[in-house]
């Protein structure tokens, strides 16, 4: 029996519950290699921070910031494509290598530059026109543009489609499946909103207890400040990292659910 995942000619219309399943499938995948994914996510974030800092510094020196913003967007696109390829390897083969996260750099450069330009168009427009001053209708239009590009990168990275063909298919699949996407966003908001509230509560307890103990033993505020800063970094970094991994894994599972013959029900 052929278990090869094949791309369909037309996207499937899925139900509201499928959006919840994307999150469930993402959690199931994440927990099977939890430590490895945390390491990959950390490497990804640190690399992006370092590259953004270097490019930002060069942009200040040159005075031509948009060129370096574009380079940053292209780099991000290659990196995200690598993560999607690593997620696909894990989901389809049962495991992945940490080096898989860099496999996006093996994809055709011209295609990826076009993908980066298209996918970052809403961000570039928002920056160009100062998003806080835009009418609400235009803001919603920019959000819609971002949403309809949801499937574009996996279609290019996993099937080698041309960027414009992938964009057309992504628009079609996205507009057909607004309900499951809405279900996913609502559940994601509840899960991570509750998680963040819980972590903030724990942080307040830890800081309160730690402050009393340290004040009674050692009045130096520098240690207390360092402890508080470390706790805040850890508590806010961890949910952000998890959310990033969940979103990228959900991109893969939603693509597979809507555009392939292996929807993982």
From TrEMBL:
Transmembrane segment boundaries: 37-59, 66-89, 109-129, 141-161, 181-207, 228-255
Superkingdom of source: Bacteria
Coiled-coil parts of chain: none
UniProt keyword Transmembrane helix present: yes
Keywords: Membrane, Transmembrane, Transmembrane helix
Name of the featured protein: Membrane domain of glycerophosphoryl diester phosphodiesterase
Species of the source: Alysiella filiformis DSM 16848
Lineage, broadest ranks: Bacteria, Pseudomonadati, Pseudomonadota, Betaproteobacteria, Neisseriales
């Amino acid at each position: 029996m052929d278990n090869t995942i094949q791309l369909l000619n037309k996207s499937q219309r899925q139900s509201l519950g499928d959006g919840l399943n994307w999150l469930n499938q993402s959690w199931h995948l994440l927990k099977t290699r939890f430590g490895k994914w945390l390491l990959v996510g950390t490497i990804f974030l640190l690399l992006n921070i370092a590259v953004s800092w270097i490019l930002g510094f060069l942009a200040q020196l040159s005075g031509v910031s948009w060129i370096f913003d574009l380079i940053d967007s292209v780099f991000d696109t290659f990196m995200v494509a690598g993560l999607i390829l690593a997620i696909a390897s894990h989901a389809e083969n049962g495991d992945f290598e940490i080096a898989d996260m860099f496999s996006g750099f093996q994809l055709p450069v011209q295609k990826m530059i076009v993908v980066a330009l298209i996918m970052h168009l809403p961000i570039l427009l928002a920056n160009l026109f100062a998003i806080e001053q835009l009418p609400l209708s235009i803001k919603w239009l920019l959000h819609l543009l971002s949403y309809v590009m949801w499937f574009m990168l996996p279609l290019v990275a996993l099937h080698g489609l041309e960027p414009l063909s992938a964009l057309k298919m992504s628009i079609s699949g996205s507009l057909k499946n607004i309900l499951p996407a809405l279900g996913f966003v609502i559940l994601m908001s509840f899960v991570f909103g509750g998680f963040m509230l819980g972590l903030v509560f724990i942080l307040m307890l830890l800081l309160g207890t730690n402050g009393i103990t340290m004040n009674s033993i050692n009045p130096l505020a520098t240690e207390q400040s360092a402890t508080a800063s470390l706790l805040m970094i850890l508590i806010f970094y961890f949910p952000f990292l998890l959310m990033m991994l969940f979103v990228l894994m959900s991109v893969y599972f939603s693509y597979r659910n809507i555009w392939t013959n292996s929807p993982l029900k």
